[in-house]
């Protein structure tokens, strides 16, 4: 498929190139921010599964360069519209139209981006090439957040915690839905584990999920450590895809909770007894032991599947479609603007996993022999 045809089929692919984003995923974060004001008061962020780097670009433009994008851009647009209505006499002169604040770079910004793939550098952002599912990544991240962190330390709690952890992690999908959902959930679990080590109380966690059969169990588990958990679907995420994002706000680790490598999520024993189950209903999912440590009651196993009490552990998160209604529909083809010139991707992948396959095909001069290494804006 030619670039022009893809520009037509995918408005966000075209817009990403026009606005200088490395991937169309940038719009997902911007639309999530429109709804949840994610960057309010934020200066320290960890961007997991960050390559090729469009989410890091959004962070850089908002926090480092002080540009008004996402929610702020939406407010600017609304302000202009109110001014126009006032000038047209559609609303009274007396109606208060408050000017949005000026764009300003923030102070003491720290952004750490991690991915398995190498990522082209972005000014002001620390990029790490690491596997988020590997335990050795935790001290690596802590060191990046605080150069004084002693890597031989057994403590894995950040001395300089962060306000926001993002994870857009996705495996190379196989098309076998159950397998893809399973691998994706492992990435999410790893991201949550990292977030538990580095988030400050009140912090936020935003992560990609694939909505599978037991996703409600995951929401209930997240509710243990966050006050609010919402599932969001940005307009730029295709309606036809199982992809969505969980937006968790107000991190409030239970009393006595300590992040740990051996027992990553502090998971306690499973609910076995009816009194535990009724306790979980009234004091959801927490149990304070005699020694004062809070155990988290995480999930079911097959023994308990028949137990009606176990069903109560599930919890349905509110679902929100987000992004301006005037935004492009990700599933529709759109007419290209007059005189449209198709641009090259902003940042082709540095080391795409499919590079070898393409090279082999090219060598053989087969049907795909002329396929260009492109992508980057996916
Ligand atoms: N948010 C990115 C952006 O805006 O450019 C796009 C992320 S892309 C959809 C998913 C990324 O997850 C890929 O770059 C992939 O390398 C990364 N990934 C998958 N498994 C990973 C793992 N175990 N550790 C680190 N990164 C991983």
Automatic annotation (TrEMBL):
<feature type="domain" description="Ribosomal RNA methyltransferase FtsJ">
    <location>
        <begin position="21"/>
        <end position="251"/>
    </location>
</feature>
<dbReference type="InterPro" id="IPR028590">
    <property type="entry name" value="RNA_methyltr_E_TRM7"/>
</dbReference>
<dbReference type="InterPro" id="IPR015507">
    <property type="entry name" value="rRNA-MeTfrase_E"/>
</dbReference>
<feature type="binding site">
    <location>
        <position position="168"/>
    </location>
    <ligand>
        <name>S-adenosyl-L-methionine</name>
    </ligand>
</feature>
<comment type="function">
    <text>Methylates the 2'-O-ribose of nucleotides at positions 32 and 34 of the tRNA anticodon loop of substrate tRNAs.</text>
</comment>
<keyword id="KW-0808">Transferase</keyword>
<dbReference type="InterPro" id="IPR050082">
    <property type="entry name" value="RNA_methyltr_RlmE"/>
</dbReference>
<keyword id="KW-0949">S-adenosyl-L-methionine</keyword>
<feature type="binding site">
    <location>
        <position position="55"/>
    </location>
    <ligand>
        <name>S-adenosyl-L-methionine</name>
    </ligand>
</feature>
<keyword id="KW-0963">Cytoplasm</keyword>
<keyword id="KW-0819">tRNA processing</keyword>
<feature type="binding site">
    <location>
        <position position="131"/>
    </location>
    <ligand>
        <name>S-adenosyl-L-methionine</name>
    </ligand>
</feature>
<dbReference type="GO" id="GO:0002181">
    <property type="term" value="P:cytoplasmic translation"/>
</dbReference>
<protein>
    <recommendedName>
        <fullName>Putative tRNA (cytidine(32)/guanosine(34)-2'-O)-methyltransferase</fullName>
        <ecNumber>2.1.1.205</ecNumber>
    </recommendedName>
</protein>
<keyword id="KW-0489">Methyltransferase</keyword>
<dbReference type="InterPro" id="IPR002877">
    <property type="entry name" value="RNA_MeTrfase_FtsJ_dom"/>
</dbReference>
<comment type="similarity">
    <text>Belongs to the class I-like SAM-binding methyltransferase superfamily. RNA methyltransferase RlmE family. TRM7 subfamily.</text>
</comment>
<feature type="binding site">
    <location>
        <position position="115"/>
    </location>
    <ligand>
        <name>S-adenosyl-L-methionine</name>
    </ligand>
</feature>
<dbReference type="GO" id="GO:0002128">
    <property type="term" value="P:tRNA nucleoside ribose methylation"/>
</dbReference>
<dbReference type="InterPro" id="IPR029063">
    <property type="entry name" value="SAM-dependent_MTases_sf"/>
</dbReference>
<dbReference type="GO" id="GO:0106340">
    <property type="term" value="F:tRNA (guanosine(34)-2'-O)-methyltransferase activity"/>
</dbReference>
<dbReference type="GO" id="GO:0005737">
    <property type="term" value="C:cytoplasm"/>
</dbReference>
<feature type="active site" description="Proton acceptor">
    <location>
        <position position="208"/>
    </location>
</feature>
<dbReference type="Pfam" id="PF01728">
    <property type="entry name" value="FtsJ"/>
</dbReference>
<feature type="binding site">
    <location>
        <position position="53"/>
    </location>
    <ligand>
        <name>S-adenosyl-L-methionine</name>
    </ligand>
</feature>
């Amino acid at each position: 498929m030619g670039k022009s045809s893809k520009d037509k089929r995918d408005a966000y692919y075209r817009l990403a190139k026009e606005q200088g984003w490395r991937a169309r995923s940038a719009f997902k974060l911007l639309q999530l921010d429109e709804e949840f004001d994610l960057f309010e008061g934020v200066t320290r962020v960890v961007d997991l599964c960050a390559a090729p780097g469009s989410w890091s670009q959004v962070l850089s433009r908002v926090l480092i360069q002080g540009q008004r994008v996402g929610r702020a851009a939406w407010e600017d647009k609304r302000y202009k519209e109110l001014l126009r209505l006032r000038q047209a006499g559609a609303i009274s002169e007396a109606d208060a139209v408050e000017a949005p604040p000026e764009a300003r770079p923030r102070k003491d910004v720290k952004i750490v981006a991690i991915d398995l793939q190498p990522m082209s550098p972005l000014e002001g952002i620390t990029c790490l090439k690491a596997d988020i599912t590997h335990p050795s990544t935790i001290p690596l991240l802590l060191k990046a957040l605080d150069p004084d962190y002693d890597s031989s330390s057994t403590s894995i709690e950040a001395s300089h915690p962060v306000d926001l952890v993002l994870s857009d992690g996705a495996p190379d999908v196989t098309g076998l839905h159950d397998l893809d959902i399973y691998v994706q959930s492992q990435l999410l679990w790893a991201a949550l584990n990292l977030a538990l080590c580095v988030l400050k109380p009140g912090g936020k966690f935003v992560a990609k999920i694939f909505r599978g059969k037991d996703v409600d169990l995951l929401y209930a588990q997240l509710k243990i450590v966050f006050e609010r958990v919402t599932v969001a679907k940005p307009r730029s995420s295709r309606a036809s895809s199982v992809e969505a994002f969980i937006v968790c706000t107000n991190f409030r680790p239970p009393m006595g909770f300590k992040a740990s490598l051996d027992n990553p999520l502090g998971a306690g024993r499973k609910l076995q007894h009816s009194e535990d189950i009724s306790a979980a209903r009234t004091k959801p999912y927490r149990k304070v032991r005699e020694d004062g440590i809070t155990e988290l009651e995480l999930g079911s196993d097959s023994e308990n599947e028949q137990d009606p009490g176990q069903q109560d552990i599930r919890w349905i998160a509110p679902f929100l479609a987000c992004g301006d209604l005037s935004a492009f529909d990700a599933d529709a083809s759109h007419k290209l603007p007059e005189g449209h010139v198709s641009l090259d991707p902003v940042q082709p992948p540095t080391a795409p996993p499919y590079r070898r396959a393409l090279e082999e095909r090219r060598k053989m001069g087969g049907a795909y022999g002329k396929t260009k290494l492109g992508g980057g804006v996916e």
